[in-house]
Amino acid sequence: MHKDLERILLSEKELDTIITRIAAELDRDYSGSDKRLVLLCILKGSVVFMGELMKKITVPVEIDFMRVSSYGAGTETTGSINIILDLLRKDLDQCDIVIVEDIVDSGRTLSHLTKYLKLKGVHSVRTCTLLDKPERREVDLVADYVGSVIPDEFVVGYGLDYDEKYRALPYVGILKREVYEK
Ligand code: IMP
Ligand code: MG
User: Fold this and answer.
1) Whose CA is nearest to atom 9 of ligand 1?
2) pLDDT (tens digit, 9 = 90+) per residue, 113-131?
3) Pocket test residue of 100, 138, 139, 160 for ligand 1, highest count of atoms within 8 A of CB
4) How many folded domains does the chain comprise?
5) Domain-embedded: residue 166
6) N or C: which end of the chain has fewer CB within 10 A?
7) Residue 145 lies in a domain
8) pLDDT tens readout for residues 13-28
């Protein structure tokens, strides 16, 4: 385990089981659709989850990327969402989009993005998150696909960062408070 971690919350094996289950749910829900299924990875935190998830889905699937910012270098939200990289494709009315997020905290990112994509004329939008911290919710947001509900702790690894660090850890762990509280 990395020395900056309090403990491991989800091991590689547990993550694999969770993602296998979500992929099966997506296969079940989209197998009959005549639209194009697009997994929309929200950079950068979702990149590891997305990579594993897409390999396990058996229905035809396309991928795309957006980047938004809601946080600075720290652990607290600012409440505002900026689109840094937008979706460029023109056939959105032919797309069933599943937004793939690393974690839902206040809920603002997924809430804003869902509304934004509907305004752009997407055929359907659903949300999928690896981790969910419901205790932190500030807006009414329930993700359609949830990997694991976790306690209100700051977690890193498997794509999630603190100050751009720890993204490459193959598991999810709770960051020691002394790392970000000085
Ligand atoms: P929300 O808009 O408040 O739901 O924030 C979601 C985003 O905040 C996630 O995509 C993460 O980038 C970031 N975030 C929230 N909680 C954590 C955490 O515990 N560790 C790392 N990033 C987090
Ligand atoms: Mg993120």
Assistant:
1) 103
2) 999 999 999 999 999 999 9
3) 160
4) 1
5) yes
6) C
7) yes
8) 999 999 999 999 999 9
Give the pLDDT confidence of 56-112 residue by residue, as tens digits.
Answer: 999 999 999 999 987 554 555 555 678 999 998 999 999 999 999 999 999 999 999
DSSP string, the chain: --TTEEEEEE-HHHHHHHHHHHHHHHHHHHTT-SSEEEEEEEETTTHHHHHHHHHH--S--EEEEEEEEEE-SSSSEEEEEEEEE----S-GGGEEEEEEEEEESSSHHHHHHHHHHHHTT-SEEEEEEEEE-GGG--S----SEEEEE--S--EEBTTB-BTTBSTT-SSEEEEPHHHH--
Ligand 1 pocket (Cβ < 6 Å) reads: 45, 70-71, 77, 101-109, 154-156, 160
- Whether this model's pTM surpasses 0.85: yes
- Residue 130 is part of a domain; what is its CATH number? 3.40.50.2020
Please count the residues of the chain. 182
List the beta bridge partners of residue 66: 42
Return the closest-CA partner of residue 102 out of 157, 24, 37: 157
Residue-number span of the structural domain to which 176 is assigned? 5-68+81-180
